[in-house]
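Example record

The entry below shows one chain as it appears in the dataset: sequence first, then structure tokens.
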Amino acid sequence: MAASRIVIENCAIATVDAHDTVYASGHVVVEDDRIVSVGAGPAPAAPRTATGPGERAGSGERNGSGGRDGAVRRIDGTGHLVTPGLVNTHHHFYQWITRGLATDHNLFDWLVALYPVWARLDEPMVRAAARGSLAMMARGGVTTAVDHHYVYPRGAGDLTGAIVGAAAETGVRFTLARGSMDLGTSDGGLPPDFAVEPLDTALAGTEEAIDRYHDPAFDAMTQIAVAPCSPFSVSTELLKQGAELARRRGVRLHTHGSETAEEVRFCEERFGMGPTDYLQSVDWLGPDVWMAHCVHMNDEDIAAFARTGTGVAHCPSSNARLAAGIARVPDLLAAGVPVGLGVDGTASNESGELHTELRNALLVGRLGPHGEKALNARQALRLGTYGGARVLGRAEQIGSVEEGKLADLVLWKMDTLAHASIADPVVALVFGAPAPVTLSLVGGRPVVEGGRLTTVDEDAVARATRDEARRLARIAEQN
């Protein structure tokens, strides 16, 4: 029986609350799926529970009882740091089985090289890739993940079901950004014609995903967003009707925006305006929208995002891998734009881990015009936690260690050689080497224990992804 009351004590805690409160030694208490206490020093004694007919009043943890089923688990967090679970706001899980390809390409050349491979995906491949992507993120502290899946080859099977099933199996909170492409090369787009869907099919598939899987509840494990791929792979009509669909069904919208200079030129040549103005013209700015990358934005673009509450998924490693540029994150934050972090697809960020993005966001940001003032350690941690929750519209539920929020928490081991001489645990986590995860909770349920996943067999996942990658390579070579 899983403990319904978990008490973690003697640990440092970075709450990422409104004041960025950090406790040098404190406690977190979880009951069922919620945080019920957080603060300095030891945990308070469990309150006595009300009695019913035939019951004796208990004394909480003194008797080993507490929570709904009476089970208590105590964890000595000495040498550890507790943070909110990491929130990944942008990814392409399917790319796990095409890692290490086209390693010296910019975005457009990289896409042209890989679209013909991705167009051969089928359901077993997508399931294996999703399991690999999710496992890698979860074992590194991610408790909420987004997958922007937009490749739906005809006859490939139930790809949406495969992805959602993999997330449920892994045990992380999940948003499927149901993507689509309907603008093939014959219509002036970038993907080959055989890799796109007809407009009506794309919209129908997106609404079907909402019908099957979207849960609007406070503690939802699965949500759906409407997510046509990008300005250079979808028609204006798909963007317009996608926005109408999302708002009619009460779900969020997601796409790529302003990722590269080539994308800016594409929009200027095709639409007579830049990406932000174009997306605004089709009603794609607002508090229910977030965009991936947003590297090439001018002051007017940033002001438009701030005015409308449009969010940004910042993907520093992918931006560097594809030579896209340095996003203006300090300026976005100063303007009040919601900003979170994203792994992006593992064909452009082969590590597939979000906790490394904390460090890369800070370091890459300091190469820009703001220099050493671009980001600090606490700002980087906020991007990867509360910032991501805000981008996904879930800041009331996750993203900080506060009473009443869902118990999505990570216990990082900070007393190893890698971090032993760094006094500030948040600085150690962000500036230092990747820290081991001793425990990761999603809604109070362990997903990682002692650095290993509790929900899936990592070795089996690795074998399946390797086999499916080889099968995809063979099929692509034959076509």
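Notes for this example: The radius of gyration is 22 Å. The chain is about 35% helix and 20% strand.
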